[in-house]
Amino acid sequence: MSNFEIEDLPYTTKTGAHLRSRGGRYTNWPAVYVLSRRREVYVGETFNLASRMDQHRRLKSDLKQLRIVLDDTFHKSVCLDLESKLITYLAGDGYTVRNRNGGITDADYYRRREYRETFDKIFEALRGLGMLRRSIQEIENSDLFKYSPFKALTPNQASVVESVAEGLFEDIEAGLSTTSVIQGEPGTGKTIVGVFLLKLLKDVADTEHPELVDGDEMFSDLFTEGYPDLVRGKRFGLVVPQQSLRKTIQRVFRTTAGLSPSMVLSPFAVGNATEKFDLLVVDEAHRLGQRASQSNGAMNTQFAEINKRLFGDDDPGYTQLDWIRARSQHQVLMLDGEQSVMPADIPRAEQKAVVEVARRGKRLYALTSQMRVRAGSDYVQYVRDVLADVPREPAGTSFVPYDLRMFDDLGEMVSAIREKDREHGLARLVAGYAWPWLSKDDLTDDALYDIEIDGQRLRWNRRATDWVDSPTSLEEVGSIHTIQGYDLNYAGVIIGPDLRLDASGRVTMDRANYFDKKGQENNRQLGIVYTDEDLLRFIRNVYGVLLTRGIIGTYVYVCDPALRERLRPYLSTAPPQLT
């Protein structure tokens, strides 16, 4: 069907004239092009390459190389699609993409599937020219790709981004201080929406020529006259409570034009900031902390000092959410209360209160499209109900083609996960915190292990940050603290002896087999003693997160025999049969 060609030319002041002299497809035919210099790129599409190259000399004169993708069968829809794909994959390959983020096109068109096959060949040809360093699968499995702001949004995600941005513009113009809340279950793309929103607002703020904005872009209306003035010079930040995910997002911001790793903050960094922020987007806001024993004494001291600095006294009722509100004019909170996994997380009452404030202010938004788990939108609630003793129909074939399986032998599950990693990459073992971390004191000794089941000896993750992509991760088991917020292709979940079935047939927790010290620690500062029922809620939430990491499939091994039999009807025991 397609017979593409790629031209590789130097980009100079004479490029436009050179293309004009050649006429034909260089002045009146749809084409896609890539301008580059070292590891920086700009991707575009046009009907008139010669004129577009002249326009770019005024704004992108530092770029040195031009690659043109031409094909006799190309039309506007194909070019928009290819442009979007190239932006996404180049960003995922570590390039600093100089494009504005006006919304990646993902429209359907005639024979799109066939053109997408051609795109794969184009990517390989560009790889042969040295542009792409990794294969498509490697790029798609990378964090730079997964968290890039250059992603095609679902209609639901795009609607939320547009509504939040428009609401923010209204509030800035009115001089208000507001809190917006975006609610969404695991896999609905809360982190992606947060990153996308910040890049979009930063690009709007940096727009100097609204008249040059491409009207085909999804959010082109936000770049029109007036909007850039509202956000120009504003101070933005993204707050990520979990250390591991924070480091990952900082890497994404490092390779994204207009963004900086310094914009990705811990709650403590916000509390210690000397200048107020105009906008803070808070990812996983349910993981913000209340006053409780911190991981070290210095952080306990910091918590008190920040409270005194911001509020004049160290009232133990102040939380990190109070810091966020005190240090920013506007806040956008990404929230899912059922992903709170620690007693030190902000309490449910405060989460409900902030949701109610957003609802009254008409600043409450819902993400509903399931983007991670290919089992469909019902899967997340299904898992939560099964763990919570809520009667449900057994899974049967309802989640086909999702690969949901229970294993009776851990060795078989370990082998299956390693096989899936060879096929797809990003297959990992994860578990509840039901074993002590004995190997923590000597991370270099390969003979040490923490978990022993069915003759399998396994150890916890060596790394606390970027564990999923670490070289030894396939041989290790990740905990909730290393995996929350991340995607896997396949997750092998070990439900440990911290969750079991009691004599009355209820799912319950076993405190003696729960080894997360901070996960069960009473709150002396607030005088709170956590009951077994309190801890059961957190442990259920932990497993709810672990069981919703896998994009293609989830494999499960249950340690408690009685619980295993209870869950067996709800988990497929054979690979999905595709028809």
TrEMBL record:
<keyword id="KW-0067">ATP-binding</keyword>
<keyword id="KW-0547">Nucleotide-binding</keyword>
<dbReference type="InterPro" id="IPR018647">
    <property type="entry name" value="SLFN_3-like_DNA/RNA_helicase"/>
</dbReference>
<dbReference type="GO" id="GO:0004386">
    <property type="term" value="F:helicase activity"/>
</dbReference>
<feature type="domain" description="Schlafen group 3-like DNA/RNA helicase">
    <location>
        <begin position="180"/>
        <end position="560"/>
    </location>
</feature>
<keyword id="KW-0378">Hydrolase</keyword>
<keyword id="KW-0347">Helicase</keyword>
<dbReference type="Pfam" id="PF09848">
    <property type="entry name" value="SLFN-g3_helicase"/>
</dbReference>
<dbReference type="InterPro" id="IPR027417">
    <property type="entry name" value="P-loop_NTPase"/>
</dbReference>
<protein>
    <submittedName>
        <fullName>DNA/RNA helicase domain-containing protein</fullName>
    </submittedName>
</protein>
